[in-house]
Amino acid sequence: MIPGKVQNIIQKEGVWENVKKQFRKNKLAVYSWRFILFMLIIALLADFLANEKPLVCKYKGSTYFPVFRSYLVDLELVKWNEGFQSSEWKKLDYDWAVFPPIPYLPKNIDDKNIHSVSPFGEQNVPSKHWKHWMGTDELGHDVLAAMIHGTRIALFVGLVSMSIASFIGILLGSLAGYFGDDKLKMTRIRLVFNIVFIFFALFYGFGSRSYILGDALAKSFFSFIAQLIFSLIIIFFLIVIGNLISRPFEKIPILSKKINIPIDMMISRFIEIMISIPTLFLIISIVAIAKPSLFLVMIIIGLTSWTGIARFIRAELLKVKHLEYIEAAHALGFSERRTIFRHAIPNALSPVLISIAFGIASAILIESTLSFLGIGVPAETLTWGALLAEARQSPTAWWMAICPGLAIFLTVTVYNLVGEGLTDALDPRLRK
Q: In angstroms, what is the C-alpha Rg of the chain?
């Protein structure tokens, strides 16, 4: 029986259906999951819920969709029409216009409602549509607009940082759990060439291009991703070249002898070293000396939060690699790469989902802490943590503390509740 058929039988037995059934029994986890989906919708539609630009307008006889066009302008695909470049959007003489429910961006300053205007106090606005429903801060920023766009930042930080952590943790944990200390073998010459070329790959991929990567990160996220992909391509090709060069030397008997690579011991010791480092202080130290950037914060959180995921999937693969379908894959002559990525890892990801759920909550809390301390995140970016920091300067502005504080509390709590729900649902003792 081939592994594919074994997996189909497992699916027919309803393992994941049982997990869903057990998860639905936990009402708190279900409502928490729905709350996360609600926050995700707010994050995706943030520009359409709170924006200084009209959703659609007619100006000088032509119809425009400024919010949609702003995405194309950010991607440098188009430019703003003449008359929209340096004007205040709400002061333009439209034929007609439809503004978002909250006609403000977090960066907009309402000079007629400065010094922390209360949401229930008297506000100097032209109409009810322009009312600050959660008040303003000391400089006149709309708090509700900052809360809505802060939702996007919080979820973006959590998802991106844990995506990085998941990639590293799953890769290293899988290698450690599947190969152990005696299953990964490599010829002497290939080991030497891999060590040498990995050093050169890291140097030419990251070391010599550090200034290019730094400039790209300062310019935009998309530029940084493009340069990062180019660096990864350089690293990949240099490692491939090293393996190709080593092949002719493997014909020499003394160099072709295979030796064990204690990959499990090496990765386990590396995990212990990472765990022993106080993560928050490490992040604070790095972002304190680097140029403030939200993307840098996400990358650092991701690079320091993978250890739990690696330990989970390592433990699962130590068990999974001895099951029947893995032995069947070996008997059929499947390559180790196919066995790992097609059959072993997909069946060992269940506990990783729990770690990711708790990790997202932790990443959001770390970003809020850094924003509160004014470290790492640009000063002009109004996040939940930055709003809390502003609340210290205005003790009477209770809404400045309650709104972001409650948002952080609820977000971290619901992710933890979803993680607990997954823990119970994946408990084998509850399966029938």
A: 26
Residues 367-393 pLDDT 10s: 888 888 888 777 777 889 989 888 888
Q: Are 51 and 86 in contact (CB under 8 A)?
A: no
Question: What per-residue string of b and e applies to 138-169 under the rule 16 or more CB within 10 Å gives b?
Answer: eebbbbbbbbbbbbbbbbbbbbbbbebbbebb
Structure token digits, residue 129? 């549509």
Sheet containing 62-64, strands listed edge to edge, beginning at the edge strand earlier in sequence: 62-64, 56-59, 96-98
Q: What angle do CA 108, 111, 113 make, to 5 degrees?
A: 95
| Predicted pLDDT of residue 104 | 92
What is the DSSP track for 301-324? HHHTS-HHHHHHHHHHHHHHTTSH
> What pLDDT is stored for residue 405 in this prediction?
92
Output 52 or 378, whichever has higher pLDDT. Answer: 52
Whether 176 and 268 have beta carbons less than 8 Å apart is answered as: yes
Asked if 297 and 283 count as a contact pair (C-beta separation under 8 A), the reply is: yes
Which residues are paired to 258 by β-bridges?
187
Question: For 12-42, how does the pLDDT look when each residue is reduced to its tens digit (9 = 90+)?
Answer: 345 567 778 888 888 999 999 999 999 999 9
Phi, psi of 65 (to 5 degrees): -125, 80
Helix (H, G, I), strand (E, B) or coil at 142: strand
Compute the mean pLDDT over every residue in the chain, rounded to the nearest whole number: 84
8 Å CB contact between 399 and 118 = yes
- Closest of 184, 148, 353 to residue 262, by C-alpha: 184
Please say if the pLDDT value at position 185 is more than 50: yes
Q: Would you say 351 and 402 are in contact if contact means Cβ atoms under 8 Å apart?
A: no
pLDDT of residue 397: 87
CB of 161 closer than 8 Å to CB of 363:
yes
Which residues, at least 6 apart from 354, have a Cβ–Cβ distance to it below 8 Å? 312, 419, 422, 423, 426
Cβ-based neighbours of 217, under 8 Å, separated by 6 or more = 223, 224, 291, 293, 295, 296
Whether the pLDDT of residue 211 is over 60: the answer is yes
CA dist 116 to 11, 55, 392, 397, 405, Å? Answer: 57, 28, 12, 6, 17
